[in-house]
From TrEMBL:
Domain DSBA-like thioredoxin, first and last residues per copy: 15-220
Gene3D superfamilies per UniProt: Glutaredoxin
One function term, GO molecular function aspect: oxidoreductase activity
Protein's recorded name: DSBA-like thioredoxin domain-containing protein
Stored InterPro entries: DSBA-like_thioredoxin_dom, Thioredoxin-like_sf
Pfam annotation, one family: DSBA
Naturally occurring in which organism (per UniProt): Candolleomyces eurysporus
Length: 250
């Protein structure tokens, strides 16, 4: 446990994710579990600053924006990634869901997530990560646990109201506009331009990247290392990095 007067080091976590991505949902749970463990149990002298970066995992020429035809997620993903990879994904999701006691599944509808990303950015502008993070988790819950269509304005408006982001009526007005649509497009394109083709990706302090749905144990080891760096001086790229953590120029 650090001395009471130890100053907190701010760790910036840039989380690049998409709401159609079940690995992103798992990764978000694991990351937040690690943060809570490091703060509440290990009492590391770290303050965590989270930033959400939208990413559209499935290209709009494959999954068109505002397409009125709802697609079954399991059928679509089986064709998109191939039956063998989809079966492996299903097995991994089922295993994680059983271990964590969460009803995570691939059932439901799949559509582009621009509206959900717009709402997440709006929450960040209105209240920072204290509003944005619970909203993001609620969207993932609606999509990956309840099988809801999070491209539907009515579904998102209910989530926004439940999370205290804005009233249901204000959320519907926002979602019917094009506010923050360009920002979602630009941020997603910028991530692709930097070489990101899959998510989740968590960029730490702009120096290191953790890719894929890593376990909370991986993040805990990383945060321990950052805490030690803070104690002994600034972190550099020298020395071995924990598993799952790579240097990045993203």
């Amino acid at each position: 446990m650090p001395p009471p007067d130890t100053p907190l080091k701010t760790v910036k976590l840039t989380v690049i994710t998409d709401f159609v991505c079940v690995s992103c949902c798992i990764g978000q749970h694991e990351l937040l579990d690690a943060i809570n463990y490091c703060k509440d149990t290990l009492d590391l002298p770290l303050n965590f600053e989270l930033e959400h970066i939208p990413f559209r995992l499935i290209n709009t020429n494959i999954l068109p924006e505002n397409c009125p035809n709802k697609r079954d997620r399991e059928v679509f993903l089986s064709k998109f990634v191939g039956k063998e990879r989809f079966s492996a994904l299903q097995a991994n999701v089922s295993k994680w869901a059983e271990e964590k006691g969460r009803p995570l599944s691939l059932h439901g509808t799949i559509r582009q997530t621009t509206k959900a990303h717009r709402l997440a950015l709006k929450a960040g502008k209105l209240g920072g990560q204290s509003l944005q993070t619970p909203l993001i988790m609620a969207i993932f819950t609606a999509s990956m646990e309840e099988g809801q269509d999070v491209a539907e304005p009515d579904v998102l408006a209910d989530i926004a109201a439940k999370c205290g982001v804005m009233s249901r009526e204000d959320a519907l007005t926002f979602l019917e506009s094009d506010e923050l649509a360009k920002e979602v497009e630009d941020m997603s394109n910028a991530a692709r331009a930097k070489g990101i083709t899959g998510v989740p990706v968590v960029v730490i302090d702009g120096k290191w990247a953790v890719t894929g749905g890593q376990s909370s144990e991986v993040y805990v080891q990383i945060f321990k290392k950052l805490s030690t760096c803070h104690s002994n001086g600034p972190c550099t790229s020298a020395g071995p990095l924990p598993p799952g953590m790579v240097e990045t120029c993203v």
